[in-house]
Design brief:
single chain; mainly beta; Beta-galactosidase, Chain A, domain 5; five-stranded antiparallel sheet; 1 helix; globular; carbohydrate binding; isomerase; GH-type_carb-bd; Gal_mutarotase_sf_dom; calcium
């Protein structure tokens, strides 16, 4: 486990999956879920080279079928620490014999966490080291403790959106998306959620409808704010488990459509890189106001 800190925050990151494990403030208060296996055994996995599910866990690349589980392999693969300073830490992953069996592209994936006051910048850098164009998706999945919620009790909370009338997608058939948009009722962008809000799995917004989501405390002030530029975002809690967290997930990619049988490169919200080219983006976690 690696750790960096400043005067306001301390974060811990594990080499496995380059996964953020903890965000604590100067008083020692924790904001990230602890990964209790009884509820959900992760904290903030990196989703790569797919986000969410493939139809029947299968994709087609250059006429061949490949099989990959939900969210891809990066979250379950050991990364290498390549740089660490007082305020920044970077882990990297590249292709291996095992990944090439699942995803036939050569790549470098670097994940950087940078502290800046009360902010954590999560930076993704994907480089095409292959001799052909590569295709990929990438996303975050941080799980934040809901203020006032406790393990084993029904979860209730409030999120503030920067859009007063967003429309969601459903990804609840075989882990894939069904057609049609559905309005999410808010009070001027304030969304009250319970476990039942996630009975149909994640609440998914695409089309860049949202760029900022704040998790509010009991006084109505932001406990955690996630800012992102990604075209999609998912919000999730494992309904029925009484787990006291909510995930706010910036995505450059999304599930397959139900019964999708096209090429991997033609998936909705797919990213591509020519040989030698690279992709870089980030999202920011702000603790407090």
């Amino acid at each position: 486990m690696e750790q960096i800190k400043n005067e306001k925050l301390t974060i811990s990151v594990a080499p496995m999956g380059a996964e953020l494990q903890s965000i604590r403030d100067a008083k020692g208060k924790e904001y990230l879920w602890d990964g209790d296996e009884q509820y959900w055994n992760r904290h903030s996995p990196i989703l790569f080279p797919i986000v969410c599910g493939l139809w029947k866990d299968t994709c087609r690349i250059s006429g061949r079928e490949y099989h990959m589980g939900r969210h891809g392999f990066a979250r379950d693969t050991e990364f290498t620490l390549i740089n660490k300073t007082d305020s920044r830490i970077t882990f990297a992953l590249h292709e291996s014999e095992e990944t090439l069996k699942l995803y036939p592209y050569r790549f470098n994936l670097a994940v950087t966490y940078r502290l800046d006051g009360n902010k954590v910048h999560v930076i993704w850098h994907v480089e095409n080291t292959d001799d052909k164009e590569i295709f990929f998706q990438i996303g975050g999945h941080p799980a934040f403790l809901v203020p006032g919620a406790r393990k084993g009790e029904e979860v209730k909370g409030r999120l503030q959106f920067d859009n007063v009338a967003p429309e969601r997608l459903y990804g609840n058939v075989g882990g894939c998306i069904v057609e049609g948009y559905h309005k999410v009722e808010t009070e001027g962008g304030l969304w009250h959620f319970t476990e039942n809000s996630f009975a149909d799995d994640a609440v998914i917004f695409d089309r860049s409808q949202l760029k900022r989501i704040s998790l509010l405390n009991g006084e109505g002030h932001p406990e955690v704010t996630v800012d992102f530029k990604s075209p999609a975002v998912g919000i999730w809690n494992p309904t029925g488990k009484h787990a006291p967290f909510v995930c706010i997930e910036p995505w450059y990619g999304i599930h397959d459509r139900v019964e999708y049988a096209g090429e991997f490169k033609d998936k909705y919200l797919m990213n591509s890189l020519q040989p030698g080219a690279s992709f870089m983006s980030e999202y920011t976690i702000t603790i407090g106001e």
